[in-house]
Design a protein that fits this description.
The protein is of the alpha/beta class. β15, α6 and β16 form a beta-alpha-beta unit. The protein is elongated and about 65 Å long. It starts with a helix and ends with a strand. The protein has a 6-stranded mixed beta sheet with strand order 9-10-12-11-15-16, with helices on one face.
């Protein structure tokens, strides 16, 4: 009986392999949608069946690229079977060693007799290196929090400087603190485009999803939200800040934190975006 079952299993596997081989041999690829793994943007030129090689340039915060084929039959993506309408994610590393250098990943797609090659090139964000931003810690209720501080290279203590407090989104709570700068390139854009301002980018570095794992909710600041405000006060005591040009901004969860912040301290900020 066992031998019969084993024989049937081998036969089924063989038939499956043969069926896939027949499907792959007759596969026809008509399009490939390419976007970042967060599904926020299309990041590749249009697909053409008679073009074999593609190059994708993406920004430093990209942690994966999603490929979704359209057409008939079955395809392989770096040797993995993918059907039309399904997605394959080419993962990009997030360790500190790779985040601050150009990273190149290759993908081979086989559709019938045709082979397509995608080269993903993630930029080197040298303008946001830790030579520009300094990582610091600040004590808060129940522990401490990280924050990045950027001070213009030619800082002159006789001049007054605007200050920007940037609050990141929910995803960066659980990512490496480097991603506070890299994700969406929000805090780092002030350095990238040469805007002369002091920039503070704290991390709400909770490791769970408790009620306080954010900057604030229902117009109540969390310990991390209050900590961000207190860091701003510390920076103001250490640098010559123009108190008429203090700004708070944020993304997603950070946007809610910004609204909560200005509701508590409406006289502190010139604007919130």
């Amino acid at each position: 009986m066992k031998k019969l079952l084993m024989a049937l299993l081998v036969l089924c596997l063989s038939l499956s392999v043969c069926a896939f081989a027949e499907e792959a041999a007759g596969a026809s690829l008509t399009d490939i949608r390419v976007r970042d793994a967060a599904r926020t943007a299309i990041i590749s030129q249009p697909f053409a069946a008679d073009v074999a090689d593609y190059y994708i340039y993406t920004q430093a915060d990209t942690y994966g690229v999603e490929f979704t084929p359209a057409g008939e039959g079955a395809f392989t993506f770096n040797g993995e079977e993918v059907a039309a309408g399904e997605s394959y994610v080419l993962d990009l590393p997030q360790d500190q060693g790779s985040l601050y250098e150009q990273y190149v990943a290759e993908l081979e797609i086989v559709a019938g007799d045709a082979t397509y090659n995608y080269t993903v090139i993630r930029e080197d964000p040298g303008y946001m290196s830790t030579d520009a931003f300094k990582l610091k810690t600040f004590p808060i209720e129940g522990g401490e929090m990280y924050y990045w501080l950027y001070v213009p290279e030619d800082y002159d203590p006789q001049r007054e400087y605007p200050v920007v407090l940037y609050l990141h989104g929910g995803g960066q709570r659980f990512q490496d603190v480097q991603m506070v700068l890299l994700r969406n390139q929000a805090a780092g854009s002030f350095v990238k485009y040469g805007y002369e301002a002091i920039v503070i980018a704290p991390q709400c570095n909770y490791t769970d999803l408790s009620a306080e794992s954010n900057w604030g909710n229902d117009m109540v600041l969390s310990p991390f939200g209050q900590g961000a405000y207190d860091i701003l006060q510390l920076v103001k005591s250490e640098y010559n800040v123009d108190e008429n040009r203090e700004y708070v901004t944020g993304l997603s969860m950070g946007g809610i934190g910004s609204i909560t912040m200005i509701s508590h301290y409406p006289e502190e900020f010139a604007a919130s975006i």
